[in-house]
Amino acid sequence: MIPLSVLMCHAPIVVPAVGGARARACRSSTRAMLEAARRVVAATPDTVVLLSPHTPRVRGAFSLVAGPRVRGDLGDFGAEEVSCDLPRGEHAALAIGDACRDEGVALEELRLRRLDHGAMVPLAFLVEAGWQGDTMVIGLPAEPSAEQCVALGRALMKASEGKRWALVASGDCSHRLVPEAPAGFHPRAAEFDRALVERVRAGDDAGLFTIDEALRDLAAEDVLDTAQVAAAATGAAARRELLSYEGPFGVGYLVAVLFADERRTADKLEGLVELAESALHSHLHGGGHEVSAPLDVGRYTGVFVTWKKNGDLRGCIGRMTLTGGVSEAVCELAVAAAIDDPRFPPVTKDELPALTGEVTLLHPSEPVADASELDPREFGVEVTAGWRRGVLLPDLEGVDTVEEQLAIVLRKAGIARHERYQLRRFRAQKVVRSVVGAQAERA
Q1: Cα–Cα distance between 287 and 280 in angstroms, integer?
Q2: Residue 117 near residue 50 (C-beta atoms within 8 A)
Q3: Closest of 218, 207, 144, 231 to residue 174, by C-alpha
Q4: Protein fold of 4-261
Q5: Within 10 Å of residue 194's Cβ, how many Cβ atoms?
Q6: What is the pTM of this model?
Q7: How far from the centroid of its chain's Cα atoms is residue 386's Cα?
Q8: What is the pLDDT along the chain (443 residues), one digit of tens a residue?
Q9: How far apart are CA 46 and CA 4, in angstroms?
Q10: What does the alpha-carbon distance between residue 140 and residue 227 come to, in Å, rounded to a whole number?
């Protein structure tokens, strides 16, 4: 199955090491690419299948990049240090080959010295997010038809049966938005981008196949073919999310979640709350707790564990950076949040039936220029001034404005509003369960 597919742009300039001083103009796309990559890694796929419109094209056939490793870098764009060296999934390659034959899809293996930027740019973000698993790169025919794209999508759906793959569609929208654009300017080019963005936002898979061909041609786009393959490979829109769209240099950069079936990922994440509850239960009953089988929930940079009693805060402790695995951190912090939070007395065994637990997983923080880039619902905030530091999670009850968020986090850090301080923001994912009492009753 393919529980997740994403659309990622492939302009090298969105990679900070390439963009340099110009990177600020496309920072929304860079952040969206990081977020899309994190979603892919968090989905814990067996294999990532990436569709690139810039892989050398074979007339009449799709191409599958061959070799035991998938390698590339952005040296042609002045960033040779941005590279990938990933295993190619041989079992996945065989499954794709068999499914393509069954669906009547022409597929040829293609040996490359290194990957094209259409594959390399998304993979740079995936590697940064922690991806090191099996990776397949598929190129397009010289002039693919919508029927060919649908057939490949169906083949990928069939090949992924009994497995867990993530699909990445690489592509850029119109290349003719402004007179200085790479392909020149056309006054109607922006119409294509608007049409595509509207369809992606609405989850309109059928609409991806009704965009006017003449409009595609004048826009000089290279995104619709891979998006059509992705739509056919999943067959439904469980959840759609537009992460970013902008065109600062005359080319439209669209980043989106095209399909997300998050049931399995949610089950794994909920297991972290069970783990926290079990660790606290064992500690309060005099036993130790070891993580026998760490949960594979993807790569996160920090963890907080929160306990509530009858809906009120009872303890919360976390780490912004991890030296070990997420599961180990959850077990340690579950006990620390209940016993060592200086704001509260230690939790007792008698309180277990009334406790509910939360685990909050943190994505990497990023610096922001000022408070205008904050949103207390979407981003947590970190402030530092010398050795003083304060952290506040996002989406907290009663914290509705940036002003309230800043006031609280500065107070936690012991920093006055008029002092100079550094400001960072981060995304977080909260996981909640409420079965501690059930565990206590079974003891």
Answers
A1: 10
A2: no
A3: 218
A4: Protocatechuate 4,5-dioxygenase; Chain B (3.40.830)
A5: 13
A6: 0.67
A7: 32
A8: 898 999 999 999 999 999 999 988 999 999 999 999 988 988 889 999 999 999 999 889 999 999 899 999 999 999 999 999 999 988 999 999 999 999 999 999 999 989 999 999 999 999 998 899 999 999 999 999 999 999 999 999 999 998 989 999 999 999 999 998 889 999 999 999 999 999 998 888 888 999 999 999 999 999 999 999 999 998 765 567 899 999 999 999 999 999 887 555 556 677 889 889 999 999 998 766 555 455 555 567 889 999 999 889 999 999 988 888 888 899 999 999 999 999 999 999 999 989 999 999 888 788 888 888 899 988 899 999 999 999 999 988 889 999 999 999 999 999 999 999 999 998 888 888 644 444 433 33
A9: 12
A10: 12
- The amino acid present at 94, given as its one-letter code, is L
Q: How many CB atoms lie within 10 A of CB 263?
A: 9
Where do the structural domains in the chain lie, given as residue ranges?
Answer: 4-261, 265-442
Which whole-number Å values give the CA distances from 368 to 198, 321, 336, in the listed order? 30, 19, 31
As beta bridge partners, residue 64 has 109, 138
**Considering only the top CATH level, what class is 265-442?**
alpha beta
CA distance 257 to 252: 17
3-state secondary structure the chain: CCCEEEEECCCHHHCHHHHHHHHHHHHHHHHHHHHHHHHHHHCCCCEEEEEECCCCCECCEEEEECCCEEEEEEHHHCEEEEEEEEECCHHHHHHHHHHHHHHCCCEEEECCCCCCHHHHHHHHHHHHCCCCCEEEEEECECCCCHHHHHHHHHHHHHHCCCCCEEEEEECCCCCCCCCCCCCCCCCCHHHHHHHHHHHHHHCCCHHHHCCCHHHHHHHCCCCHHHHHHHHHHHCCCCCCEEEEEECCCCCCEEEEEEEECCHHHHHHHHHHHHHHHHHHHHHHCCCCCCCCCCCCCCCCCEEEEEEEECCEEEEEEEECCCCCCHHHHHHHHHHHHHHCCCCCCCCCHHHHHHEEEEEEEECCCEECCCHHHCCCCCCEEEEEECCEEEEECCCCCCCCCHHHHHHHHHHHHCCCCCCCCEEEEECEEEEEECCHHHHHHHC
Interatomic CA distance for residues 322 and 252, integer angstroms:
36
User: What's the number of CA atoms in the CB half-sphere (13 Å) around residue 20?
Assistant: 5
